[in-house]
Recover the amino acids of this structure.
C-alpha cells in the first residue's frame, strides 16, 4: 500500500472517533442540541446508505465479482457493515476472521474451531492452547476477540467451550474467559517495517514507547517483549537458528514458533512474553497492552 493511501486509510479508520467526539461536545449546548446533532448524523448516514445501496446493486449486477473486491477492501467493507450491506453473512465473516488469526494461534500451539453463530452469539472451542503460559493465553484470547469484533461488530457475545475431554464440555462465559483482556486497555499499533524482515532475520523496534523484538521464520513474523527470562537481560543481538532464538548474554534458547517456550534445561519452564501480531488493513500491527501480572 502506498504511503498516501495508508495515511488516508488511517484517517478514515478514526473518523468514527472524531464524529463521537463532536457529538459529545454538542452536549455542552444541552440535551436538545445533542439530540439535534445525533439526528443530523442519522439523516446523513441514512442518505448516504441509501445511495450506497443503489450503487452497490448496480455495480454487482454489472460485475458480480466486484462484491468480493468490495468485501476484501477494509475501508469499503467497514462502510458496508455500517449500512448492513456487506455481501457476506456474519458466520462467513467470523469464519474468515478466524482463518486470519489461525496461523498466529498455531504459533502458540493452539487452534480454534467455530461451532456456530446464533442470535448474535459466536460459539467457539479452543484447542491445544499454551495453557502453561498465562501471558500466551491472554494474547490468544485477545487476538481472537479482536478479529471477530472487527469482522462482525454486530456480534453481541462470544461463548467459548472447554477443549474436548472425556468429561462433558461446559460453557465458559466469555466475560470470565476474557476478563484479563477486558481489564487492560489495548491499542493496535501498525508497524509496517515488520514486512521488511527477511527469513531468519531478527530486529528490534520501538512500539508505543516499548522495545519489541520481532523475527521472521519462513512466511510468519513473530513478536516478543525484549527480555530474556533466563538472565532478565535484553535480547538485542540475539540470532535465530531455525526457530530457536538464542540470548546473546546467557545463550538460553527459546522456540519463537511455539510461543517462545524455553528449549534448554535451565529455562525449560521459562518463555518469552509474546505480543499479538495481526495484519490489519494490510499492515502488520501489534497489540500493545499494560503488563499482565501472573499470579
Amino acid at each position: 500500500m502506498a504511503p498516501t493511501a495508508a495515511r488516508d486509510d488511517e484517517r478514515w479508520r478514526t473518523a468514527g472517533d472524531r464524529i463521537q467526539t463532536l457529538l459529545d461536545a454538542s452536549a455542552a449546548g444541552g440535551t436538545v442540541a445533542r439530540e439535534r446533532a445525533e439526528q443530523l448524523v442519522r439523516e446523513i448516514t441514512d442518505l448516504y446508505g441509501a445511495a450506497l445501496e443503489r450503487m452497490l446493486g448496480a455495480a454487482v449486477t454489472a460485475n458480480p465479482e466486484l462484491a468480493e473486491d468490495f468485501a476484501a477492501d477494509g475501508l469499503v467493507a467497514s462502510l458496508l457493515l455500517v449500512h448492513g450491506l456487506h455481501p457476506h453473512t456474519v458466520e462467513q465473516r467470523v469464519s474468515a476472521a478466524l482463518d486470519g488469526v489461525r496461523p498466529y494461534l498455531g504459533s502458540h500451539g493452539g487452534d480454534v474451531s467455530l461451532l456456530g453463530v446464533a442470535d448474535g452469539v459466536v460459539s467457539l472451542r479452543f484447542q491445544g492452547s499454551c495453557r502453561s503460559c498465562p501471558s500466551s493465553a491472554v494474547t490468544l484470547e485477545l487476538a481472537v476477540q479482536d478479529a471477530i469484533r472487527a469482522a462482525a461488530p454486530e456480534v453481541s457475545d462470544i461463548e467459548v467451550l472447554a477443549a474436548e475431554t472425556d468429561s462433558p464440555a461446559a460453557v465458559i462465559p466469555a466475560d470470565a474467559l476474557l476478563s484479563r483482556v477486558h481489564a487492560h486497555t489495548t491499542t493496535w499499533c501498525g508497524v509496517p517495517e515488520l514486512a521488511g524482515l527477511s527469513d531468519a532475520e531478527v530486529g528490534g523496534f520501538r512500539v508505543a514507547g516499548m522495545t519489541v523484538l520481532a523475527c521472521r521464520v519462513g512466511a510468519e513474523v513473530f513478536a516478543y517483549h525484549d527480555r530474556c527470562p533466563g538472565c532478565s537481560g535484553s535480547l538485542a543481538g540475539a540470532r535465530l537458528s531455525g526457530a530457536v532464538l538464542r540470548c546473546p548474554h546467557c545463550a538460553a534458547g527459546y522456540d519463537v514458533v511455539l510461543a517462545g517456550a524455553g528449549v534448554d534445561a535451565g529455562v525449560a519452564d521459562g518463555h518469552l512474553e509474546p505480543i499479538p501480531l495481526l495484519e490489519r488493513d494490510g499492515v502488520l500491527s501489534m497489540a500493545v497492552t499494560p503488563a499482565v501480572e501472573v499470579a
Observations:
- Residues 189-288 form a domain with the Rieske Iron-sulfur Protein fold (CATH 2.102.10.10).
- The chain has a mean pLDDT of 79.
